[in-house]
Amino acid sequence: MDEVIDRQPSTPTAQPNNSGSSSDDIALKKSLDALEAQTQLLRQNLLAQNQERKATGETYARHYNAYNTWFNAEQARLAIEDSTYTAIPSLPITVAKVTLFLNYEMTRPQKRKRADGSESTSTCGHEHAKQVVSALEQYRSNYAHEYRHIPEAQVTLRSDSRIRSMEASFKANEPERIKKAHALKAVGTRADTYTDTQLSSLATSGLESKGPTVIWRTMRDRAMLLTSSSTAFRGDSSRSLLWSDMYCYDVPMNAKGRGEKVRALTLIADSSKVNTTGRVDEHGAFRHLCVELCPIGAIGLLFFAHFHVINSPVPDFSTDFDHPDYGEYVRK
Known about the structure:
Layout: H1 19-52, H2 56-81, H3 95-107, H4 126-142, H5 161-186, H6 196-205, H7 212-230, H8 235-239, E1 246-252, E2 261-269, E3 281-285, H9 295-309
Antiparallel strand pairs: 1-2, 2-3
Helix pairs in contact: 2-4, 3-4, 3-5, 4-5, 7-9
């Protein structure tokens, strides 16, 4: 007798539903992208705040704008000359693009005009090239996250031999460039300087100012202008000059007679763009034959405006031996 086996139909195995997992992954990726964008924006804002406290902010922006302008114009020129050529955008910043821009910067004249209105023939130096690379590297690094799909945009500029070679070439050309610049100065070029007429006009333009604050501010600007133009003092050095950095000194002047001396105003500076080692430099100025161009008179008018126009109190000139930040040199 055959055995009858009762077989129950098998229940089909349920397949895992991946639709929920897939949607979760998409949502998670969206959240991670938002987090990434938020932190990158935070970093950019912090960088912008730091740049505002430094003079390099405007300088870096100028180099960046110059790069964009030149590169786009150069690509447009190439596209016009060759109809089969496709113009390359200036962004993202890459080593190849910056190399071409540095080659242009090496030969172009400085964007200056002489006193007679003619263009300067001096070329850009090594420090200029270093600053250009630093500026473009900052912009490249700051926006590299937006071009992660482009490997060339992730390469730091100075890690490439092309950029290092360009900087080395600028440095090698520096002695010859300086020699040429000095030769041009010797034959009378006067880039970035005022004529006597222009300086006199600037020095007297603010003497008719009205209102205590305006008068004081005008006297301050006038003193900085005439001090910088009468001594080997840069504008940023005159702005940071302290009262304690000024003193009078009797300079021997044998041309006037044996034992004759002429009193000079002496300015001390231990930090500037050309002095980053703390060296103490002394700059002197004599009274000018033209009263309106005299730096000593300009500083005197500034003091008059400070104490008698805006009525500032007389400061305490006594020595502070207990100030914790000055040690054995005391605070004056």
